[in-house]
Amino acid sequence: MAPKKNGNRPPTWRTLRLNWRIWSVSTANPLHIDFVCTGNICRSPMAEVIVRDALTAAGLGGDVRVTSSGIGGWHVGGPADERAQAELAAHGYDGSQHRAAQFGGDRFDADLIVALDTNHVSELVARGVPEQRVRLIRSFDPTAPEGAGVADPYYGGPAGFTTTREQIEAAADGIVAWVRNRVQSQPRTD
Fold it and tell me: Which of 27, 50, 115, 171 is the least crowded, having the fewest Cβ atoms under 10 Å away?
């Protein structure tokens, strides 16, 4: 029986091999993005959850590992701030599984380290992270002013957490585009 002209052919060894190469490249060495704020209980966990959801929705969830951490270790092992969790939950995100971590270890080697404000950029560079791997989160939002960060909502009320979520959501598409570009430009290996 001749194959159909519409391209609906049964898989051949060649197409299976190609599909395996695509899968193995995307899962063997996923990209790593780490979001960094001060204590890893407000801004960076919100960014981790929101961007992970955006990457999954874009079909890129298996191509990238998304983490978050804090410059300081005050809250290591603790959950995200209750107000951050409430803001996320009110908009369909689940931040309940977050446990705070301090920046270091394998996070130092992340492909992209996304700082939530300029103080975090300075601290990361001072710790030896190459500048080309550090970006401000709002630099992924084409409508944000140059050099803008996300203000810390910790000492404020619920409105600060709403602003934080909105600013992170505005940057999420730019981060998804960055990941897509990196995944598409990765060399294929046999």
Answer: 27
